[in-house]
Write a structure and sequence with these properties.
Structural class: mainly alpha
Strand content: under 5%
Helix content: over 70%
Shape: elongated
Radius of gyration: 26 Å
Distance between the termini: 75 Å
Largest sheet: none
Order of helices and strands: HH
Number of strands: 0
Low-confidence stretches: none
């Protein structure tokens, strides 16, 4: 077992050590996977924006018809 470190410096060093260990376990996406994921995000954002626009325009038309 590791020797227990004391104080704020020890806590910071221990934290950085743990971060380095975890980063070594990370599997990064390939360039192709990254492109695919980016396209999914962009298409999803555009779809949500279009849906929001349609809902907004519909509600505006209803309010204008009722109160206009």
């Amino acid at each position: 077992m590791k020797e227990e470190k004391k104080g704020i410096k020890g806590a910071i060093v221990g934290f950085i050590d743990d971060v380095v260990k975890e980063m070594k376990k990370v599997t990064w996406p390939t360039q192709e996977e990254l492109k695919e994921s980016t396209m999914v995000v962009l298409v999803s954002c555009l779809a949500i924006a279009a849906l929001s626009y349609l809902v907004d325009m519909s509600i505006s038309q209803i309010f204008n018809a009722v109160f206009g």
